[in-house]
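Bench notes, afternoon.
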Amino acid sequence: MTRYILRRLAISFGVLFVGSFLMYVLTINSGDPLEDLRESTANNRDTLIAARIDNMGLDLPWYQRYWQWLTGVGGCFVGRCDLGTDRSGSDVLSLLQQSASATLRLVTIATIAAIIIGIIVGILTAIRQYSGFDYVVTFLTFLFFSLPVFWAAVLLKEYGAIRYNDWIADPHVSVLQAVLIGIALGFVLQGVMGGRMKRRLLTGGVTAVFTISALLYFTSVGWWRSPALGPVLVILVALAFAVGITALVAGLGNKRVLYSTLTTVGIGSVLYFVLGGALDEPNWWLLLGLFASAIVVGLVVGYFMGGYSRGQAMGLSAVTAAFMAFLTFADRLVYAWGSFLQLKPRPISTIGASTPNFPGDFWETTLDWGAQLLLPSILLTLISVATYSRYTRSSMLETMNQDYVRTARSKGLSERTVITKHAFRNAMIPITTIVALDFAALIGGAVITENVFGWKGMGAMFKTGLTQVDPNPVMAFFLVTGTAAVIMNLVADLAYASLDPRIRR
C-alpha cells in the first residue's frame, strides 16, 4: 500500500506540473497586460507602465517568470511559500489566504450536505424503484441537474432573501397557508414511507395535522422572531435519533448497541447543563475541542458497553454523540436569533460573504456568517445532489441484483441487514469516485456562484486575474483546485481499498 501511495503521489506531481505549465502559457498569451495603460492619457502613464512591468516581471522571458513561480511554490514545502505579486504589487499568497477560506468553506459545506442528502435519497429511490416517490425524485434530480446556475441563483436571491426578509419583518402564517403546507408535507412523507393505502393515509394525515398545528402555534406565540429549542426538545430529538439509527443499522434487538447509544444521550444531557456557562461566549477552538471530546465519549461508551457488538456500538455511539453536540450548537444559535434580528432586521443578504463591521457577539456573528453562506450553499448542493442520488440509485440497484445479496435474503436475513451490511457498502465503491471529482468541480463552479452572490473568494480572484492577463492570481487558483483534485482522488483510491479488500491486492 505504501508503494502504491508513493507511486500515485509521483504521478500526481507530474500531472500538476504539466497542468501548471499549460495554464501559465495560456494565461500570458490571452491578451496584453498593459493594454489599459497604453490607451491611457494620464501624465504619469510611462511611470505606471514601468511599475506594472516591474510588478509582473514583464521584462523577463516567459519561461524565467514561470520558473520563478515554480520555485516559489516549491518553497511551500520548507515553509517559504512565495506565489509572487499581482499587477498592483499585492502579495498573491495573502490574497489567496483570504479568498480560499471563503471558497473552501462554501464548497466543503455544499459537498458534505450533497453527499448526505444524495446518498440517502438514492438509497430510498433504489428500494422504492418505480414507485411514485421514485418518479418524483427522478424528475426533480434531472431538473436540478439541468438548472442554469445563474438563473437558479437569481431565483434564490428573490425568494430566499428578498421575500423572506419582507416576511420575517412581520411573520404570519395564515390558516390556509398552514393547511396547504401540511397537506404538501403529508403527501411527500407518505410517498417516502410507502406501504399499504391504510399506512399511507395514516402517515400523511398525522404529518399534516402535526405540521398545521405547529405552524399555527409558532405564529400565535411569535416563535418566528424569538425561537427556542430548549433542553427538553434537544434531549427528545437526541433520543429519537439514537433509537432510529440503532434500529436502522444494528436493529433494536441488539440491546448492547441500543443501551450504548442511549447512555451516550444520557451523558450528553448532563453535559448540556454542566457546560452551559462555557457556551455563553465561546470561540471556535473551544467548540471544536468539545465536539472532539463528545466523539471520544461516544467511543468510550461503545467500547465498554458494546460487548460482542463493540465495533458497531462504538461507531453508533460516536455518531449519536456528534449529533447531540450539533443539536446543542443549534440550540444556542436558535436562541440568539431574536437578538440577531435586532442587529440585522433583514437577515439574509444577497451580496457578500459577511456583514462589514457587524457588532454582534459570537453566536450572532455565527448567525450572520451562516445566513450569508445559506443561499450559495443551497445552490451548489442542489446541483450536486442530483449527481449523487442518481449514481447511488444506479449502484444500489446493480448491487441488490447480485448473487450474494440474493443469498443473504435466502438465508432469512432481514431487509435492513441485507441493505446496510451487504448492499450499501459495495454500492459505495463507485460513489467515492464521484465525490473526488465533484469536490474539484464545485470549486470551479464556485466561480459563477461567487460572481452572482458577490463573494470575494477564489472565483473572483481567478476572474480578475484572467481579465487582467495577470498569471499569478490565476496560478494560485489552479494550485488550490489542482491540489484539491489530486488529494481527493488519492482519498478515493484509499477509500476503494477500505470498502473492498480485494482492491488492496
